[in-house]
Amino acid sequence: MRRCEMMGWRLAPVSAALVALIVPAAAQDKADPAASLKLPKVSRAAPPSSNATVNLINLLVKQGVLTEEQAGALVRQAEDEAYVARQAVRDAATKAEGAEKSAATAVEATSPRGTKRVTYVPEIVKKQLRDEIRKEVMEKAEKENWASPGKYPEWAQRIRFYGDVRLRHDSSFFPTGNYPYTVNYNAINTGSPYNVLSDGTYGNPYFWPTFNVDQDRHRERLRARLGMEADLFDGFYAGLRIATGESNAPVSFNQTLGGSGGNFSKYNIWLDRAFVRYSPWNDIALSGGRFDNPFFASTDLVFHRDLGFDGVAAQVQHEISPGFTPFFVAGAFPIFNTDFNVGSSLDFTNTNVLPGKAPSRDKWMFGGQIGARAEFSPDVSLKFGTAYFDFTNVQGKLSSSCLVATATDFCSTDLLRPSFAQRGNTYMALRNIVPQYDGTNLLPQYQYFGLASDFRELVVSARLDLGQFHPLHIVIDGEYVRNLAWDAADIAAKVAANPLPAGPIAGCSSATNCTQVYAGGNQGWLGRMTVGHREIRQLWDWSAFVGYKYLESDAVLDAFADSDFGLGGTNLKGYFVGGSLGLGSNVWATARWMSANQVAGAPYAVDIFQLDLNARF
């Protein structure tokens, strides 16, 4: 008896639901049957209707496809059909209601007096309905992306943003006894040429542009970088990064707070990375644009860790036996590209202006490296590599004889001067200036300066990682460099002809007593040991390091060397020590002390203390 009662209650609502699903919702609207007898008014300027069919007919009338009479007949036909549908709905509902009442009457007739009927849906039916509804809703939610507002669309999930911010306190301490007249060749070469006769005679140091070597400085500095990498398709990747910086110097993103004019002036943002990379397999990567250093470098002896490389590079590696993976890297990198509007020069030999512009002096670096990574056990690994870098058109050359009447005049080898430099490399005068007189007075001689040495660098790098105390590691880094193009005799001759102090020269006992005898070299090395966590990512992660650096004047291009040790450049030796401590997830502090001295030439020393607060995201 109870089973019949339950079936009677279940049939009625199910019948009504089936009817509602079969008949379109638009046909269930209330309507007056008499309205279908009236011919609807159709106009070319008819306002929009809530009925899509009427709107379409009005549009066809407006475009002249249908006449108003034809349209009126179609609208009437549509409304007639809608009326029939509504009647069918009402009839179905009436029949369903009658069936429900009949079933209820039948159940009541066979039920004892006082019987109560309760609608019952088995638990298995409820679960099936819930699963079906959940599936439909989730499919729609994922398609329309409204149920998961924190989830990116598929194309956005292939883009990754990253960045970091570093706050730094930087103090430079100069001892007494430094030679105060170290010439700032970068200031000359990136500005107007220097008049070597500014005081009427050669060699008065009070007129030279020089570095600060005796006044302590304390700076608060900022570095901020924001990057994006996109996984495109079929092994293609792209990346961009912007960064702060006081200038477009290649080796520093530091911005001194209060700099750039002070008074809370805004700071520059530079395009630091922009590249496309193709990696069809995990063992091969081809890069083009501006990207990170593609070569393995265990230290920043040769290239500063922040240096970006312009050009193209190929990286190949393959594990040929368990734990042993050789690798090869090669690339071509433009350092300087000649401007289309570069100046014309006055050739003194022919006493006329050369036709057209000066020839191209494009500068390139070509590099190759071969090495391997060897894993002796899960806790011990060694990575090593040997690289060779060949630089073209970076060495200065004496120009043809030229007349220089003003600071804007151009000589044939002016483009060979470095477009950026730090300090340490040896310099030569570029212009072969023909003296000119105004009556009895010698006219100004505006001079530019170039590098006295050529550069072909052989670099050996190695890193030993001892991880038996995991998560703590002991990491030993070492690097050696030798400039194979260095020619001491050739450089010494160029130094002797330079009207200004040209680099590491001997006999500088005072400002006016400085013998132009070359004392530079072509080698360098750096050793460092680090103990602690390999990466500082969590609270109380830590590491400590100590090392020693020795880099002679013309071992590498000073433009690309570390910008912190000794305030940047070459011809430096000394030790450094420091450590890092995690203050939270991806937040850590670093302190370091660096003590540098001149390798050769006039006395120079500086001690630097840096305290950093780093945040990464």
UniProtKB/TrEMBL annotation:
Signal peptide positions on this chain: 1-27
Stored InterPro entries: OMP/PagP_B-barrel (IPR011250), Porin_5 (IPR032638)
Domain of life according to the entry: Bacteria
Keywords, alphabetical: Signal
Keyword Protein transport: no
Protein name, per record: Porin
Organism from which the protein derives: Rhodopseudomonas thermotolerans
Lineage: Bacteria, Pseudomonadati, Pseudomonadota, Alphaproteobacteria, Hyphomicrobiales
